[in-house]
Specification:
Largest sheet: 7 strands, mixed
Distance between the termini: 50 Å
CATH superfamily of the largest domain: Periplasmic binding protein-like II
Family: Belongs to the LysR transcriptional regulatory family.
Pfam families: HTH_1 (PF00126), LysR_substrate (PF03466)
Keywords: DNA-binding, Transcription, Transcription regulation
Structural class: alpha/beta
GO molecular function: DNA-binding transcription factor activity; sequence-specific DNA binding
Number of strands: 11
CATH class of the largest domain: Alpha Beta
Protein name: LysR family transcriptional regulator
Length: 294
Amino acid sequence: MNYRHLTPSMSLLLAFEAAARHESYTHAALELSLTQSAVSRQVQALEQQLGLTLFRREGRQVKLTDVGRLYQREMSEALGRIRSATLQAMAYQSGSGTLRLATLPTFGSKWLLPRLHDFYKSHPGMLVHINSRIDTIDFETSGIDAAIVVGNADLPGLISHRLHTEELMVIMSPQAAKAHDAWPPELIGGQTLLNVVSNSNVWGEWFSHHGLPHRMMRLGPSFELTSHLIQAVRAGIGIGLVPRILVADELANAELIGLDLPFASQRSYYLTYPPRNEMLPSLIAFRTWLLEQI
């Protein structure tokens, strides 16, 4: 197979990608500091090399064909990876680097960010860009290098490092805690139980763990973010079952009361990323630092 035929020159690919993104030779030419005719010639040369019609000409406008749109999607991702690899190589040479990290919003604000200054002390030339995500990360299209997620097992096709098991704690406001001198598990059933949408079965697991019938549960409002649930507990709306590490400050400051009814869930926190990112200098540095914090 002639691989050279399947590897067009970068100038042709850049012209196509810009023209496809704008669906305009004029705008592509302005972006690339070329003339409109030069962009047109490069796109035509690419079409001839591939034997494909990538654009339809409609008067003075150009529109992507179906195969052109498919090629644009794949080529945009490939060029993005090339740019990322180039930046990482340059960063490696200079001792600096950038990491694009996705993390759960509450974990990021309550656990990661208060510790991140220690990372910067050890790696002053590096930058960690934080993206809050609660949905599944698509590493192919999102531009994310690595993610901190919570789940039941390693994710297929990705490299995962288990950080720690999710230890959950029943929390309530100081005012609510005054209702009883002691809080055995049986008393929890009479309370308004707040939950997070992404882990809606957690109270059922807790009741089963303590041998209590599920009919005792009185489920209350649900929240998308754990941080919102914590605020609702502080406001006295109900009681929550949350990871202990996310309420350490509130417990220390007596803003919340934690009951001595520990429960290890079936989930764990993971640092995860695609295999192609394993040797990124910024990820190596962050991964080493993060695993030392656990």
